[in-house]
Specification:
Elements: H1 2-29, H2 40-60, H3 62-113, H4 115-127, H5 147-150
Helix pairs in contact: 1-2, 2-3, 3-4
Length: 152
Amino acid sequence: MLQALKDFQIQRFNDLVALAEIAQTAWKQQRLPACDDVPKSAQYTAMGILVAAQLVMILLSSRGRRIIFLTVDTVLAVLLVGILLVAILSLPFGAAYIGLRGSIMMARSLAENFTALGLVLRPLLALIGQAAVAPTGSGGGGGTTDPAAGRS
């Protein structure tokens, strides 16, 4: 991470050196060089410096600070309202999903524990791809499988 920052700083310094050389050459020759003669990275660095200088000049005045901060405040408010709207509008979908999953779990449980309901619910669960496991044992499903528990 620090190496990338150092590389970035070195590149910007090299761009500033190139811009200084171009400015000196332009001063001596009394004409500006063609745009193709100036490297793109140096052009972008010069534009970044100009934008940063303009931002500093705007922030130095109280009216400029007020405009900048109100703009940032408005942008953040719009973004947060958008996030809130997305969260609120997604609630019905989440509730429907949770309700569907709960209904499927309840239907599975009923199909596994009650034989009569299992006959009706298993085909419906298989139809939606949520097949319930058929009961094992000869007791007909539902209830306990321990024969001693049935005697009292």
